[in-house]
Amino acid sequence: MQFVLVILDTAISHLPAALKGQHAEAPWETVREMGARMHYDRRHEVADAEVWQVLSTQLEPLRDAAKRILADLDQPGLPL
Q1: Residue 40 within a domain
Q2: Phi, psi (5° rounding) for residue 43?
Q3: Parent domain of 29
Q4: What confidence tens digit (pLDDT) does each residue in 9-56 have?
Q5: How many domains does the chain have?
Q6: What is the CB neighbour count within 10 angstroms for residue 41?
Q7: How many angstroms separate the first and last alpha carbons of the chain?
Q8: Is the dihedral of CA 31, 35, 40, 42 positive or negative?
Q9: What is the reported pLDDT for 48?
Q10: Helix, strand, or coil (residue 80)
């Protein structure tokens, strides 16, 4: 499951700040920071409980925001 956070970190880092700002309710930074810690900071091991806490509480709001973004992109006349 740690790899999921690393992938999400990478994906979130490529999203424009304006887009994340339009969906500020999503825990972008919480998920991104945990993924970055796991990917780049190999000196400190991240506790399994900490990983589980982020995955069990933050993925649903993140998924909901992603669904809203995709729905907005699917609207006719909106630039991609």
Answers
A1: yes
A2: -70, -30
A3: 2-14+25-73
A4: 999 999 999 999 999 999 999 999 998 888 877 656 778 888 899 999
A5: 1
A6: 10
A7: 31
A8: positive
A9: 84
A10: coil
